[in-house]
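Is it possible to get an amino acid sequence alongside its tokenized fold?
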Amino acid sequence: MRRNRDENTSKNAEKIRSSQRERALMVPLRAKTMLLSITALVILVSCSAGIAVIRYTGAGNALFEAVNQIKKNTATTLGLTINEVLVTGRNEISRSKLITILNVRRGDPILEFDPHAARERLLSIGWVADADVQRRLPNTIYVRITEQKPAAIWQHNGKFKLIARNGKVISKKISTQHRALKVLVGEDAPTYAAELIKMLETEHDLMKQVTHATRVGSRRWNLLLKQGIDVRLPAEHAETAWRYLATLQRNHRILQQEIRAVDLRVPNRLTVQVLHKKTSTRAGDET
């Protein structure tokens, strides 16, 4: 029995020593793998720096192409090349335009791709309100886009453009789904679009009747309603006048009357222009 216990103890000790040798062997192997990866990254960065120097000094094209090819081959060997562009939040922007702006191609070294420069290019697109661009090693470019929400149509010099609430031009093309938006007329109309929309939203029922808003003298707005009524707002305290008109509409249905215009430019005074009906004359009637 004692001999068996001694043999078991000897075997356990041998297993422990074997396990320790395996762990000791794994540490150098892992360190070697990490060292190879770091070395590869250093090679790629060095190649990029070398290419920059060659471009700056105007050295031979052949050398430039050779270094560039070495860099691409190294990236390909390590799997550090662009294989996929993952995009979220894109609805209005075409994929082809997006890829062109990002300036990426399948097989390009991923470490050469500059996410910050790509983001700046994306923000130059009218539809883009914000963007997040990331490199996800080893082979994916991730792009998250927040698109602008069309708020109005800007009319100026006979041209129509889709604009956001902040006045930024989104697109020169007006699709069918956006033709119901209000039309803002005037050179500086986009600058004051947010202010106007905020005011109109204080009276939603009345806002629904507005089709056009024209900037007058870079100071105030004239509104055109669906009934063909022209509403002239004051340069100052326009929101107060707007609320007053909404109150008159709720209490007296003023906009259902036969009127052509409502003038609110003078404080505490309402001027209404009545719509005159055309009178017809019959043969034999005296005029």
Summary: The longest strand covers residues 128-136. Residues 2-77 form one domain. Residues 21-39, 51-56, 279-287 have pLDDT under 50 and may be disordered. The first helix runs from residue 2 to 57.
